TrEMBL record:
Belongs to the peroxisomal membrane protein PXMP2/4 family. The keyword Kinase does not apply. This is Protein sym1. PANTHER family: PEROXISOMAL MEMBRANE PROTEIN 2, PXMP2 MPV17 (PTHR11266), VACUOLAR MEMBRANE PROTEIN YOR292C (PTHR11266:SF50). The keyword NADP does not apply. Keywords: Membrane, Transmembrane, Transmembrane helix. The chain crosses the membrane at residues 59-81, 101-118. It is found in: Membrane. One of its GO terms (cellular component) is mitochondrion.
Length: 185
C-alpha cells in the first residue's frame, strides 16, 4: 500500500509540473500484442506466440500521440460540464454524451487510419478498413465505453481520468488489435 501511495504522489507531482507529457507517457502503455493477434499466425501451437515489436511500437505511438488530444478533450469536457457536490450526475451524463457522439467516432477513425498507414497501407487500405471494421467497432464502443466513462467522469479525479481510460483501454486495444487485423486474412 505504501508503494501505491508513493506512486500516486509521484504521478501527481509529475502531472502538476507537466500534465501533457505525463499523460502522454502514461497513455503509451503497451497493450497485449503478439503475432497471434493476426489471423494468419494462429496455426502455431507450440509455446507462446512470438512477440511483435513493430505492432507494439505502433500501438504505443498511437497512445503517445493521442494523449495531448485526449488531454485537451477531457479539459474541455470538464470546463463545459463542471461537476460539483450538488450537481454531479447530469454533467457527467453530458460529458459521456459529448464524448461518445463526437470523440468516439472521430477517435476510432483516427485509430484505424493511423494503424493502417503505420502498417504501410495507403488510401485504398484505409477505405477498405473503414468499410470492413469501422461500424462494428463503433457499435462495440457504444456497448463498452459509455459505462466506463460514466464511472470515469463521475468518480475519478481529472488527473487520473486519462490513465483510468488507458488502463481500461488495454482490453479495448486488444479488441481493436484483433479487429484491425481481422480483414488481413
Amino acid at each position: 500500500m505504501a508503494i501505491t501511495m508513493r506512486l500516486i504522489a509521484k504521478f501527481n507531482a509529475y502531472y502538476a509540473e507537466k500534465p501533457v507529457l505525463t499523460t502522454m507517457i502514461t497513455n503509451a502503455q503497451p497493450p497485449h500484442l503478439h503475432r497471434a493477434d493476426r489471423p494468419e499466425r494462429k496455426t502455431r501451437t507450440n509455446g507462446p506466440p512470438p512477440f511483435d515489436f513493430e505492432r507494439l511500437t505502433r500501438f504505443m505511438a498511437y497512445g503517445f500521440l493521442m494523449a495531448p488530444v485526449q488531454f485537451q478533450w477531457f479539459g474541455f469536457l470538464s470546463r463545459a460540464f463542471p461537476i460539483s457536490k450538488t450537481r454531479g450526475t447530469i454533467p457527467a451524463m453530458q460529458r459521456v454524451a459529448m464524448d461518445q457522439l463526437i470523440f468516439a467516432p472521430i477517435g476510432l477513425g483516427i485509430f484505424f487510419t493511423f494503424m493502417t498507414v503505420a502498417e504501410g497501407g495507403g488510401k485504398r487500405a484505409v477505405f477498405k478498413k473503414f468499410q470492413d471494421v469501422y461500424l462494428p467497432a463503433l457499435r462495440a464502443n457504444y456497448m463498452v465505453w459509455p459505462a466506463v466513462q460514466i464511472l470515469n467522469f463521475r468518480t475519478v479525479p481529472i488527473q487520473f481520468q486519462i490513465p483510468f481510460v488507458s488502463t481500461v483501454g488495454i482490453a479495448w486495444t486488444a479488441y481493436l488489435s484483433l479487429t484491425n487485423s481481422a480483414d488481413e486474412e
